[in-house]
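re the bet — no i am not wrong, look at it urself. input seq straight from the record:
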Amino acid sequence: MTTSHTWNFFRAGGFDQVQLDSGADLLALKELDQKLWVALGCPTRGLEFDTRTLDLIDSDADGHVRANEVLAAIDWAGRLLKNADLLVEGADSLALADIDDSSEEGKQVLASVRHILKSLGKPDAAAISLADMADIEKFVAGLEFNGDGVICAGRIADAGLRATVEDIIKCAGSVADLSGEAGVNRDIADRFFAEAAAYAAWQAKGESDAAILLLGEKTMTAAEAFHAVRDKVNDYFTRCQLAAYDARAAVPLSRSAEDYQRLAAQNLSAQSQDVADFPLATVEAGKPLPLVSGINPAWQGKLDALRERVVMPLLGNRESLSVQDWAALCARFAAFEAWQTEKPAGSAEQFGIVRIREILGGGHQTVLDGLMAQDKAVEAEVKATRLVEKLLRYSRDLFKLVNNFVSFRNFYTGQDKAIFQVGTLYLDGRSCELCVKVEDVAKHAGLAGMGGFCLAYCDCVRSGGAEKMTIAAAFTAGDSDYLMVGRNGIFYDRKGQDWDASIVRIIDHPISIRQAFWSPYKKLSKLISEQLQKLAASKAGSVDSQMIKAAVDGSKTAAEAPSAPPKPPFDVGKFAGIFAAIGLAIGAIGGILASIVGGVLGLKFWQIPLALIGLMLLVSGPSMVMAWFKLKRRNLAPILDANGWAINARARINIPFGTSLTGMAELPEGANRSVVDPFAEKQVLWPYYLAIAAGIVALTGLWYVGFFG
C-alpha cells in the first residue's frame, strides 16, 4: 500500500511496528493500513491511563476505544492546533497563541479560553492548563445560564414565578441542572401548562352550563352523595318491581328468616358487611324508598346525605322517594356525569381551579420560555468550555495512547511501562513487571492460558480490605517449584501504593530453559522421596501396630493366654528361590552398571566429560526442546484480548525480552558476603565412604573378570 507519508518502522516482538515521532506521523495515521496497527480496540477501564480522556475519545460511550475513534480524536485536535507537534510534547498546558482560530469552532474555543481565564482572575494569562480546568464543573454549574435549558426554582428572584416552578416540579417532575439542583426544562413546562390549560377549559365548560353544575358549587358534593347510593337504590327499586310482578317474591327478596338467624349469632354493628348486603328497606310491590325510618342501618348515613344534599335541594323536603322521583334525579345528573367523563388526564387538578387560573393568568409560561431561551443561548459557549478541556487532554495524552495502541513502543522499548501494566508483584524472590488487572479470573484464564505464560492470579487488598482488585502476573524467569495457591506477596501499583497479594490460581507453563533442564532430575528426586516416605510410613505403622499388639497380649495372664501354635518348619526350597531371584536382580543391575562404567572407562580421558554431558542431555534434552518451542510461542495477545483489547498482531515475547520482565534476587554489586553459616547442618561423610567403597568393589570386579586385561 502506497501513502503520501514516509513511515519508519521498528521490529520488536517478532513483528514490524510503526514508529511515531512527530505530529505529521499522527496526522498521517489515517493513511496507514490498520492491518499494521498492533491494536484496534481497548477498554476504557483497567488501564494506567486517564479515564476522562478515554471517555472523551469513546464517542459512542460503549466502554471501548476503537481505531476510528482514535483517528477522529487526532484529526479534531490537529485542526484546532497550529502546530501538530504539540501533540507529541504531551504538555498539560496550552498557549493561546497555539490555538488555530481560523475556523468557527477554533474561534469558539479561543473565546471560551479567554472567558475561563477571566473568570479565574487571570485575564492576561498567555496559556491555560488542566489545573485551571480542575473546577470547570463548579464553574459551569455556577453560571446563571449554563446552556442546559433547565431553570431552577432556587435561582428565581420573583416569588410568584418561583412558586409556579415549584408547583410544576410537584406536578410534572423535574430534571437535574448542571449544578445538581432540580429544575424544569421546556418539555416539562410545556406539558404542565398544557394540562393546566385543558383542565381550566374543562372547568369553564361546567361552570357555563347550568345543566352540568345543577347545584352550583355544591354539585360535586351532591354528586358524591348520589353516586354513593345509586347502585343500592337501583337494587331496591328492582326488587320492588319483582314483588309487583309476583307477590311471592316479596318475602325472599327481603331476605329470609334463616338469613336473620345467621346474623343473630354475630356481634352486629352498622358497619357490618353482612348487614350492608341486605336491601335498603323491606321489599313490597310499589313501595317508595323510605328516607327517614325503616332503613337498613348500614346505609342510614349515606341515605341521610342523599336526602340532605340531593333530594331536598332538587325535590324538596321528602321522607320517601318514589321510583319516578329516583328516575328524575338520575336524569338530572346525566349531564354532570357526561361532563365528568370529559375531564382531561393529568395531575394539575391537585392544585385546584383557583391556583391553576392564577398560574395561567400570571403570564408565567411566557416568562419561563424567555428564561429557557436565554439559557439555551449560551449553550455553544458552554460547550466550547468543554471543548477546551477536551483539547487540553488530547494535547497531553494522545501521543502516549498511540504508542500503546497503534504500536507497543512503550512496552517493547522499555522507555516506559505500557498502559496495561498496572504495577509490580514481589513474590518468591522475584519481581514481575507484566501484571494486568483482571475482573473475572475464570473468564480471563480461559483465553489467557493460550499465551503460553506462567500466570499467577492474585487477589490484592489494602486499607484493611476496603480496596480490592485482582491481577494476573506473568513469571518469565526462574522456576515454578514454589509457586502455589495461597502464597503471599506484595504488589506495588503504579502510584507506589502497596497491596497484600495472595495467589488464587496458577496457569502453569514453562518459565525458562534452566527449569526444563533440571525438571527430569527434580521429578526423579521427588518420586524417590515420595516412595521412601511411603516405605518409611508403612514400616513405622507396622512397628507401631506390632508394639500395640505386644502390649495388649502381654497384659493377659498366662492361664488365659491360648497356647501358641507350633512354628512351621523352615522351608529351604522357598527361601532358596527368593535368594536366587534377589541374586538375579543384583546381577542384572550389576551388569548394567558394569556396561555403563565399562563404556565410560573404555573412552579416552578427554572423552569422558563429553560422554557424561551427552548422557545428561539425553535425559534433559527432550524437556528442554519442548520448553524452547513453548517459550518461543509466548504471545501477549491472549492476555490482553481476555481484558477486552482487540490485539491485531502476534505480540510475541521472546526468551531474552521475557526474562527481562521478571527480576531475580541478586546481591548488590560490591556487597560483602560471608559464607560461614553458624547453623549449617553438619556434613554426613558415610555416604561418600560408601560410594568410594562401591567404586573400589566395581573396579575390582571388572579387573577380576579381565576387563582391564
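see?? The mean pLDDT is 83. told u. also Residues 420-530+605-664 form one domain. so pay up
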